[in-house]
Amino acid sequence: MSNINDLFAGEVVTKALVRDVELPHGAGTMALITLDNGFDHTKPNTFGPGGLTLLNEAIDAIAARTDLAAVGVTGKPFIFAVGADLKGAALVRTREEALQIGRLGHEVFRRLGELDVPSFAFVNGAAMGGGLEIALHCTYRTISSGVPAVALPECFLGLVPGWGGTQLLPRLIGPAKAIKLIVENPLSQNRMIKGRDAFALGVADAMFEPADFLEESLRWAAQVLGGSVTVERPAIEEDWDKAVADARFLVDMKLRGAAPAPYRALDLIASAKDASRDAGFAAEDEALADLLMGDELRAGLYAFDLVQRRAKRPAGAPDKALARKVTKVGVVGAGLMASQMALLFARRLEVPVVLTDLDQARLDKGVGYVHAEVDKLLSKGRVSQDHANRLKALVTGSLTKDAFADADFVIEAVFEDMGVKKKVFAEVEEHVSAECVLATNTSSLSLSEMGSELRHPERLVGFHFFNPVAVMPLLEIIKGDSTDDATLATAFSVGRSLKKSAVLVKDAPAFVVNRLLTRFMGEVIAAVDEGTPLELAEHSLDDLGLPMSPFALLQLVGPAVGHHVSETLHAAFPSRFGVSENMAKLVASGKPGVYAPDFSLDPEAVALFAGGERPSTAEQVRERVLRALAEEIRIMLDEGVVAAAQDIDLCMILGAGWPFHLGGVTPYLDRAGFAQPRFLEPGVASVPA
């Protein structure tokens, strides 16, 4: 154990505090273990060797007693436990050390399910990773309806649930539901579920309200021990092999074999059908050891650190105290993007939002969209009837921009044309106060040029959302030549209120995400123009596990939009960004892309790209794209488009779906040998700060 203790030298030790509780109805004495690292909820309970050793010692003392009716485990206020101490895990040097970590967790946790008396987990707060696994080892579980997060996020980071999760959970709730928590949710932007959802899935046997959760849980435990409450768990009757096969197909569609962790997790879940407890836990140890030694974990931890830490402290953001209060929002335009924004502003800021457009029909459609989306939230139980009524009342429309007279923040979402946007802001400026922030959702145009004719260009800021607005977490905040700190601070404040991760970006063509995606797409399209078969080029980067192939992404964005951005960047950087004549043909054809509605390639669209005589191999296309990305990132860093390479990584993860298993784009290019000089200092991509 000395080796792994050295690795976890900085461990914040979670103590196992034991007290006796006399259960009601004469049910006897329970030894109640409270997990507590001595800090408030902002530093959750985690498990390293020190904490596991203390828990083991507490169980030793409990096991030696003959006067107990049961054992209970709960957490400190708002937190049950959130799993292993990953800072130490990231420093593992040998496979033997990795095996020790897996075996230690199993040795300690399994004891809770193998005592002479029943064990109860009282899940009072967030339970993730090893925190959920310790609860699974207990005989019974209760959960608070107020628990905000229940998850097994290991596959998101490049690991598997290695302390019993892949064996115990499918046997408890069935393989399909277990796969949802172990594989599908982590691969869907690390989705968490709430306490009520966990109870509905069968993870917990009983659920109580937060106010008297522990008291009610103890009363329930006494009833179980006394026999007045019987916990019945239905037999698992679903087709186990089919559930695993179906999940493997979906993982293949999403990752195309690029990341090992989800596949190892599915192998373990498959084996849980017949494996003994000892064999299943040993298989988890082996899988955990393999994955702890791989690049995927380091990459995942680097990416996780970016979205959990750097995203919450944006580099270059002004003092929060400079931000102005926003009590009303104006949205210019009532199309789909504008309507999505209006809904988000209303939901998060809960202030009046007014849309404007050129005619009543468009306006009615935009406001109608918002109201319909609120009705969907109501039907799903996401909002109450009163809340739905308030949200609908907040969003209105006007044909004239004098409706913005008392607005503090006005954002435009009109056609991506400089002349149109200048005209819009000139009209808006006639009606708003001098302090009102003017924001543009432009995806590629110069902010400084856009504000060049304003009376107050200092209050213009870029506020670039990604589609769909409610889902995509990134917000590129662009500072123009004249943008002042108060405007910038207000933009960051609004971004935080919208629950977006904001990155400060210099006013440079297409900013970060669209600039890199356009360079990426441009190289693939150029290879096709030169004669590379479109399907071959389309799948040349499958081994990266990107969320979409290049032409599928083009179909989502729309050929006209993609072509327009490429023209904008060609005008700015003609030597690096080309304009494809074949893309122009695709736009002129009116086709939505190269795919037919059934997702097969449209032969007529593909034929528009025929004629080149210099085809490339898939490997040549892949290398061409990655070298181009490395070159463009190096130039962007030299230009100061963002403060550091980590900000480019953050933008690509949150705005373009760059896979977590690759870490950020810059450390990946470093590892793959495409970045010279290195984007990151040695060690940055290996160990989170």
Automatic annotation (TrEMBL):
<feature type="domain" description="3-hydroxyacyl-CoA dehydrogenase NAD binding">
    <location>
        <begin position="328"/>
        <end position="507"/>
    </location>
</feature>
<keyword id="KW-0520">NAD</keyword>
<dbReference type="Pfam" id="PF00725">
    <property type="entry name" value="3HCDH"/>
</dbReference>
<protein>
    <submittedName>
        <fullName>3-hydroxyacyl-CoA dehydrogenase NAD-binding domain-containing protein</fullName>
    </submittedName>
</protein>
<dbReference type="InterPro" id="IPR008927">
    <property type="entry name" value="6-PGluconate_DH-like_C_sf"/>
</dbReference>
<dbReference type="InterPro" id="IPR029045">
    <property type="entry name" value="ClpP/crotonase-like_dom_sf"/>
</dbReference>
<dbReference type="InterPro" id="IPR006108">
    <property type="entry name" value="3HC_DH_C"/>
</dbReference>
<keyword id="KW-0276">Fatty acid metabolism</keyword>
<keyword id="KW-0443">Lipid metabolism</keyword>
<feature type="domain" description="3-hydroxyacyl-CoA dehydrogenase C-terminal">
    <location>
        <begin position="511"/>
        <end position="593"/>
    </location>
</feature>
<keyword id="KW-0456">Lyase</keyword>
<keyword id="KW-0511">Multifunctional enzyme</keyword>
<dbReference type="InterPro" id="IPR006176">
    <property type="entry name" value="3-OHacyl-CoA_DH_NAD-bd"/>
</dbReference>
<dbReference type="Pfam" id="PF02737">
    <property type="entry name" value="3HCDH_N"/>
</dbReference>
<keyword id="KW-0560">Oxidoreductase</keyword>
<dbReference type="InterPro" id="IPR001753">
    <property type="entry name" value="Enoyl-CoA_hydra/iso"/>
</dbReference>
<dbReference type="InterPro" id="IPR050136">
    <property type="entry name" value="FA_oxidation_alpha_subunit"/>
</dbReference>
<dbReference type="Pfam" id="PF00378">
    <property type="entry name" value="ECH_1"/>
</dbReference>
<comment type="pathway">
    <text>Lipid metabolism; fatty acid beta-oxidation.</text>
</comment>
<keyword id="KW-0442">Lipid degradation</keyword>
<comment type="similarity">
    <text>In the central section; belongs to the 3-hydroxyacyl-CoA dehydrogenase family.</text>
</comment>
<dbReference type="InterPro" id="IPR036291">
    <property type="entry name" value="NAD(P)-bd_dom_sf"/>
</dbReference>
